[in-house]
Amino acid sequence: xxxxxxxxxxxxxxxxxxxxxxxxxxxxxxxxxxxxxxxxxxxxxxxxxxxxxxxxxxxxxxxxxxxxxxxxxxxxxxxxxxxxxxxxxxxxxxxxxxxxxxxxxxxxxxxxxxxxxxxxxxxxxxxxxxxxxxxxxxxxxxxxxxxxxxxxxxxxxxxxxxxxxxxxxxxxxxxxxxxxxxxxxxxxxxxxxxxxxxxxxxxxxxxxxxxxxxxxxxxxxxxxxxxxxxxxxxxxxxxxxxxxxxxxxxxxxxxxxxxx
Amino acid sequence: xxxxxxxxxxxxxxxxxxxxxxxxxxxxxxxxxxxxxxxxxxxxxxxxxxxxxxxxxxxxxxxxxxxxxxxxxxxxxxxxxxxxxxxxxxxxxxxxxxxxxxxxxxxxxxxxxxxxxxxxxxxxxxxxxxxxxxxxxxxxxxxxxxxxxxxxxxxxxxxxxxxxxxxxxxxxxxxxxxxxxxxxxxxxxxxxxxxxxxxxxxxxxxxxxxxxxxxxxxxxxxxxxxxxxxxxxxxxxx
Lengths: 260, 238
Hints:
Chain A is mainly alpha-helical.
């Protein structure tokens, strides 16, 4: 088995530490890795035994997860020589998984995830303002430009993740960078805001541009505040979407009760 | 500058050079192995480095935790991005092949042709040191990356290089130096601190703009670094 390098890919197969519903956690992890392109279409997964060891789950749990992934159409298993489990990238299935995940999470979970992401991104932006070289700032700008022109939802999401990871690298911090990678494996399990309201992409792009401008001006306090409030805005979008769904579900549930 | 300070600059500069040359000696062995294969085979389609190359990582006193060859892609000949790179696993100390993510559509895409450690030797035909940098899409470590071109001009075949963790470089250099001299700062050509014995100048930070003109300080031959002495907590004095 190869050693997956590049921390993003390593994080995909890092041991799971959320105790309950572990097979679902495996499904989510693999789903988000496909969404971020860390697992490519047609790529072969490690063997069952190896995968179970890497993720620190039992082979029974892993088989349950693989069965679910097959049912969803995200993994295809071929028998015989050259056989194994192969990844299938399907944007429609990933979008459904994201909706299901949003439904599962409470507003407090979303707020917590946003709190940590805000803390990491704000710290990275503050440090980057005094540590990023001109080359690195140019690279950040280039990534934001690519985000603005990315045409697919998947492409937008990946480029957005890349922006945050490069921002943390500009802070010269391995630990902040690893935190960002872990966070994006979680964040990418949720719906991408512009998928529901395309206009939000402009808000995201403008938010990132403002942070990069502050970094270029070497204004650490402004970079920090802008990054923090931008992540806060996005957390609110996720919570609003969650509440809208809840309202819709309650409304239709109420009708059903009225009928029955 | 008093003669005493000049002596200190010379002593620290010599120690830095010694450590750097030690790593470049390893890089040169990787380069030579690659050149021998190139002369033999012509087209780099199969592996260029003999399997034994990775043993360099396990030599006593080796500072590098990663080394190898990064091949210049040649799309017209159907030759894609390719690395022959080994790294020491931080866990069990064994060496393994690095297999980074070379898919352009991935969040983890490692576009090494745009990386400074690849691009500078390609453009200039000369060796280069990058860092300290967070090697996001490669090894995930905090590194100095030392590279030199294999072949030159039209025959540029890629770069040979080695990764040295920032911590290992610092520990080794300070040990080599023995008694610490006056506080000093080593900066690279981006004004970034490579190593510092002045607590207010942190590794990885950029020198403040008021710290004097770039180009001040003593050059370290063969690397894009300068050495500055710190006077009473203030930078810089060459």
